[in-house]
């Protein structure tokens, strides 16, 4: 976990509201694993005050990528950054996906909704290197909201997609597409990130079938490293629901330990 | 190089920069980002006697140059603090202040009784801004008599120096400050967060799970500076100023109006190395101004024409 006040943007790609930045920083990339995140300052000065948590889209020995959607002023400012400029980052943070059991011969299904697709590229690539077989379920409202489809295809991550309006792929929610596929095949594990309802349904589809599932939760964060206690979610521990920190205890939790009712 | 040593009377600090309770976790979270021994000291997260659940989310709202929080003082309680946190903190050469909470007078006293038996604590900071169950959610710091009584009771039991941390949500902070001094406080720290709220016009809902929260960050600095000045003029005991301090300049401004030391709060969320950076910036600001001893600037504000 390092603070790099000047990670250089070496590549930027944009698709409407969606943006991908590649950052050159050996410090931020050191030890990075799928499911971890960065805390990024979107501007200098006091406003916006807080960093924004952004999932690792991909990483190598001395670089990382973030993929995000403009959701407010902070991400809008970040989207204005150009190649060659620098950003102030903190990371890698949080506990990522647990992959020990996903080696050769194991089937992993990755489910990403909207900007929640961000960590699935790094995760899919890493799982493939481990020898696991990977399928990706990628959902968005419209064809324009699933801009990374071709990237996943080129990487051999076998994506199938859904759009709420039917403009591309399966017409309907990605969870319905997932449920249909689960009738035909049974993976060894599910991994999901996206809007709360999507993660909740994916979690219960997995729990009903006894398939282990890891869910990456999202939250507004004050610090990102466990000091402010601002980003809590109800998590079952020793049979009891507790407010646990998403930044430090997560962001990845087992589907069975996430309690959705109260949070 | 400027002499940064500060004498609080009851405690000598290697420099005037402390971290503010609730913004520095239990201290160890920050060890990857800064050397705790480079600070004047740390004030750890508020402790009630038992573990606390805290408030339902959302717990944070970002505002213009500020942050509203309603964490609800979630925490581990004194026993786990003594068993798990203090052994870690004792390995660092820094003055550890423990922020003491209570939902009634008795709980403050029980926390102090317990912590008196724990090694490695330099002083207590009595958080009299906790909502008090017997005061229907108001905090002791809103009333001079309750402030004096709780401070006096805590001081009687305490085997360590005692700061009282004041709330800004009062009509006349100087009178509360004097009540804490009368109660026997060895020093005062201020300000705690400003009571605040944020609402969503579209959903017609409050933005915080707890509805109300406390505003911190650069947005509150002018209010904090004003209150620090008023309190420093009103009491003889040392004052520790805080509220929106993000740079060495900010810190020196608080000292100029009378703070003997300062606490860095919300800035540590944005820049986990902020407190150590501010020590370095104070040193540079002193050098640039030819200030030999940082303590010389305490209360040096000139208001005459």
Name its key features.
heterodimer; A: 263 residues; alpha/beta; Elongation Factor Tu (Ef-tu), domain 3; Rossmann fold; 2 domains; seven-stranded mixed beta sheet; six-stranded antiparallel β-barrel; 7 helices; 21% helix; globular; B: 305 residues; TIM Barrel; eight-stranded parallel beta barrel; four-stranded antiparallel beta sheet; 8 helices; 30% helix; 20% strand
Q: Describe it for me?
A:
The complex is a heterodimer of chains A (263) and B (305). Chain A is an alpha/beta fold and 263 residues long. Chain A has helices spanning 26-29, 73-79, 118-129, 149-154, 174-182, 196-209, 246-249, and strands at 2-15, 18-24, 37-40, 52-59, 63-69, 86-93, 107-113, 133-140, 159-163, 170-171, 189-193, 213-216, 232-237, 240-245, 252-254. In chain A, 21% of the residues lie in helices and 36% in strands. The model of chain A has no long low-confidence stretch (mean pLDDT 96). Chain B is an alpha/beta fold and 305 residues long. Chain B has one domain (6-56, 72-198, 215-297): Aldolase class I (TIM Barrel). In chain B, 30% of the residues lie in helices and 20% in strands. Chain B has helices at residues 77-89, 105-115, 144-157, 173-182, 221-234, 248-256, 267-270, 274-289; strands spanning 6-7, 12-13, 17-19, 41-47, 60-63, 66-69, 95-100, 123-127, 162-165, 187-190, 194-197, 199-200, 205-206, 212-216, 239-242, 261-264. Chain B has an 8-stranded parallel barrel, surrounded by 7 helices. Chain B has a 4-stranded antiparallel β-sheet with strand order 5-6-14-11, with no helix packed on it. In chain B, strand 9 (162-165), helix 4 and strand 10 form a beta-alpha-beta unit. Chain A binds chain B through residues 1, 3, 41, 46-51, 90, 219-223, 225-233, 242-243, 262-263, and chain B through 22-25, 29-30, 32-33, 45, 53-54, 56-60, 62, 64-67, 69, 71, 74, 217-219, 246, 266, 268-273.
């Amino acid at each position: 976990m390092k603070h790099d006040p000047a990670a250089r943007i070496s590549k930027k790609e944009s698709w409407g509201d969606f943006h991908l930045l590649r950052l050159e920083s050996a410090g931020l990339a050191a030890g990075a694993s799928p499911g971890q995140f960065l805390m990024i300052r979107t501007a200098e000065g006091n406003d916006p005050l807080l960093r924004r948590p952004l999932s690792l889209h991909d990483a190598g020995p001395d670089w990382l990528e973030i993929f995000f959607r403009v959701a407010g002023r902070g991400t809008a400012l970040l989207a204005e950054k150009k190649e060659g400029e620098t950003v102030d980052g903190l990371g890698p943070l949080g506990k990522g996906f647990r992959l020990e059991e996903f080696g050769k011969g194991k089937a992993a299904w990755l489910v990403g909704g909207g900007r929640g697709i961000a960590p699935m590229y790094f995760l899919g690539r890493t799982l493939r290197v481990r020898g696991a077989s990977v399928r990706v379920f990628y959902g968005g409202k419209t064809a324009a909201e699933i801009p990374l489809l071709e990237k996943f295809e080129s990487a051999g991550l076998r994506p199938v997609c859904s759009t709420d309006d039917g403009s591309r792929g399966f017409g309907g929610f990605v969870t319905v597409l997932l449920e249909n596929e689960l009738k035909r095949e049974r993976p060894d594990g599910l991994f999901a990130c996206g809007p709360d309802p999507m993660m909740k349904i994916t979690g219960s589809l997995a729990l009903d079938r006894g398939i282990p599932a890891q869910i990456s939760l999202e939250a507004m964060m004050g610090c990102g490293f466990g000091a402010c206690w601002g980003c809590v979610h109800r998590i079952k521990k020793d049979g009891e629901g507790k407010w646990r920190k998403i930044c430090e205890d997560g962001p990845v939790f087992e589907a069975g330990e996430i309690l959705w009712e109260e949070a | 190089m400027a002499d940064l040593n500060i004498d609080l009377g009851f405690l000598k600090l290697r420099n005037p920069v402390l971290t503010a309770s609730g913004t520095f976790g239990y201290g160890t979270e920050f060890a990857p980002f800064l050397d705790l021994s480079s600070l004047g000291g740390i004030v750890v997260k508020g402790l009630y006697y038992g573990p606390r659940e805290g408030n339902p989310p959302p717990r944070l709202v970002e505002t213009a140059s500020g942050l509203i929080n309603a964490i609800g003082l979630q925490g581990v309680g004194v026993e786990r603090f003594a068993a798990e946190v203090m052994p870690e903190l004792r390995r660092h050469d820094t003055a550890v202040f423990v922020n003491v909470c209570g939902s009634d007078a008795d709980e403050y006293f029980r926390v102090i009784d317990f912590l008196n038996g724990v090694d490695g604590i330099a002083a207590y900071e009595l958080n009299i801004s906790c909502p008090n169950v017997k005061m229907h959610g108001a905090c002791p710091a809103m009333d001079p008599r309750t402030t004096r009584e709780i401070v006096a009771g805590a001081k009687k039991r305490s085997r360590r120096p005692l700061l009282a941390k004041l709330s800004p949500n009062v009509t006349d902070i100087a009178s509360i400050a004097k009540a804490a001094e009368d109660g026997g406080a060895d020093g005062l720290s201020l300000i705690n967060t400003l009571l605040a709220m944020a609402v969503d016009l579209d959903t017609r809902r409050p933005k915080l799970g707890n509805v109300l929260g406390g505003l911190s960050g650069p947005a509150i600095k002018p209010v904090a500076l004003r209150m620090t000045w008023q309190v420093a003029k009103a009491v003889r005991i040392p004052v520790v100023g805080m509220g929106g301090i993000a740079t060495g300049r900010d810190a020196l401004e608080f000292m100029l109006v009378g703070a003997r030391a300062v606490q860095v709060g919300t800035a540590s969320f944005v820049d986990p190395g902020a407190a150590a950076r501010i020590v370095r910036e104070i040193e540079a600001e002193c050098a640039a101004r030819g200030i030999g001893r940082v303590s010389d600037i305490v209360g040096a504000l000139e208001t005459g024409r």
